[in-house]
Amino acid sequence: MSADQYFTLGGESFGEVREKASKFLAHAFPIADEEAFRARLAAVAKEHHGARHICYGWVLGPAGERFRAFDAGEPAGSAGKPILRQLQGAGLTCAAIIVVRYFGGTLLGKAGLAHAFADAAKAALACNTVVQCTVMAAVEVQCGYAAVEEVKRQVKAMEGALVKATYAGRCVLHVHIPRSRATEQIAKWTAQGITARVLAGA
Predict the structure, then answer these.
(1) Alpha-carbon span 165 to 147, nearest angstrom
(2) pLDDT, tens digit (0-9, with 9 covering 90-100), for 97-137
(3) What's the total number of domains in the chain?
(4) Which of 10, 14, 115, 190 pairs with 107 at a CA distance of 20 to 30 A?
């Protein structure tokens, strides 16, 4: 797998584990950023407003360099970390798992809790699919009409995408291309008399 590639979840899935009358409901899903995660968390919290604990783990960044685990009042390290380890162990990023616990009246102990949260997260992942994605750079390309079709061909050959185009005195194309190839491709376009630059924040 190239440095451009990462693995994430293909959609949302659910898993359920019961342990000594406690019920653990897991939601596994892909996320684009923390804001998207918070929106899904709020929806889950609203749906399960009677639950005692809503714990989670998430991973972000092409290399999984950003992550968080949250115990939601459970003993430290007994909920969020076991959930997070399921994501990291599967090599996933841009993904999250929320596990809702309904207390059944019997204390499980820290080890029992960790096992149950991990099993619920694992059950949700088992019902999902893993997809391979490419880290893209957003690039603005300016060229004459004669070069437009060649630029589009090159973008397609890289499995990139044309996002939008403006045709005026000079054509302006906004494209997404694999990030690791952006510097090399921009140099090629420059040599062809085509102006290209990576857009800020891309």
Answers:
(1) 13
(2) 999 999 877 777 888 999 999 999 999 999 999 999 988 89
(3) 2
(4) 14
